[in-house]
Amino acid sequence: MSGHVGNLSPKQEATLAEFKENVKDITRPHFDDHYFLRWLRARNFDLKKSEVMLRNNMKWREQNKVDTMLEWFEPPEVMLKYYTGGLFGQDKEGALIWIDPNGYIDIKGILMSMRKQEVILSKVYLLEKIYAMFEEKTKEQGRRVDQMVIIFDMEKFGLKHLWKPGVDVFTQIIAVFEDNYPETLKKTFVVNAPKIFPLAYSLLKPFLSEETHRKVTVCGSNYKEVLLQHIDADQLPAHWGGTCTDPDGNPRCPSLIIPGGQVPESYHRQNDLDDVSAFTQVSIGRGSTLKLEYVVDKPRCAIRWQFKTDGFDIGFGVLKKTADGPQKSAEMEEVVATQRVNSHMVPEDGMVQCKEAGTYVVRFDNTYSWARAKKLLYLIEVLQPQTFDLDMPKVDSSSSLASSPGDDVYKSF
């Protein structure tokens, strides 16, 4: 049995009923059997794992205000103009098609022009737009539309795309997708894969579930024939084997599929910290950590951070104390998992909403380095709920720059 509505075994039916009962405290009116089964399939109908996954998702959505994201967030202009990809048509079974000429992305230029957190938020915004489109297509077409086919065109992909901060962003986007939008991917086709592709894929594979990995097909030189087995020609740009072109005859259809290209220097702000007058500068000794405590006096406050290091990376995480007095890191609740970040290449920034009041610990970790101390510049702020609501990232709507294909990709659903 497939695990989809109308194709469940008796055991799967029973598991679905029990799952719905277990999570009824967080169930919302729009949660139907299709919704619940996505989480069950993602964890092979393991009740406990599926429940943990769904509860983590609900917590993530609350912390990041995802449910209202389409109201308060707009992707920065450079994202709309230069981050490759776009929706184009549907496959033979109705799944939406995302085509990404990934080899033409200038990820370094993008990260020099906007903050990493803005890139990730822009991708979450896009996924929320796509989910809204799923609902519209389902109503319009009288069939269930809730999955995507992704075509990655790796033409021009090279070593420059393996720049560490860029890879970090890709892996974080994948993690967000895997953890919070399960069973959205129907199939991925990789075309024009260069010799370096196995190395690139090896960096991403640890972040993919086994089921996602099974959905990836690397096509050979006959990729157009392969794509047409799954997609009708009138649903595919001519460049990838279909019959569609832009009004001017362009076979790549850049009016809907952002073609990428080098980000102009006029967008570059070096993503740097120009004014560091409010920042604190410290040196974290080799094999040492820096723990900074912040008292959050009410729920829904947010902790926001900006920092950079000089020459080398640093570990970063946010913890919550579970008792008064001194506590080891291992005894605290993990709020933001500690990981090494390349803040010497691209300044790091981010924010997390605190669901509960309490004492939170921002931790900079240099314990893995026994040879070097790290010079750190940081600014940590605790934002009150009203400030947090008003301080969500926006873009300047007064910009005089021309519209781009990305405006359609993100807004015209």
Account of the protein in words:
- The protein is of the alpha+beta class.
- The chain has three domains: about 10-65, N-terminal domain of phosphatidylinositol transfer protein sec14p (Helicase, Ruva Protein, domain 3); about 70-270, CRAL-TRIO lipid binding domain (Phosphatidylinositol Transfer Protein Sec14p), CATH 3.40.525; about 280-385, Sandwich (Jelly Rolls), CATH 2.60.120.680.
- The protein contains 13 helices and 13 strands.
- The protein has helices at about 10-20, 35-40, 45-65, 70, 75-80, 105-110, 115-140, 165-180, 195-205, 210-215, 225-230, 385-390, 405-410; strands at about 85-90, 95-100, 150-155, 185-190, 215-220, 280-285, 290-295, 300-310, 315-320, 335-340, 350-355, 360-365, 375-385.
- Strands 1-2-3-4-5 form a five-stranded mixed β-sheet.
- Helix 2 crosses helix 3.
- It starts with 9 loop residues before the first helix and ends with a helix.
- This is SEC14-like protein 2.
- Pfam families: CRAL_TRIO.
- It comes from Aplysia californica (California sea hare).
Percent of sequence in beta strands: 15-25%
Write down the domain tally.
3
Integer-rounded radius of gyration: 23 Å
Q: Structural class of the secondary elements?
A: alpha+beta
Helical content stands at: 25-40%
Number of strands: 13
Q: What is the overall number of helices?
A: 13
Region (Disordered): 393-413
Organism: Aplysia californica (California sea hare)
Protein name: SEC14-like protein 2
Domain CRAL-TRIO: 75-248
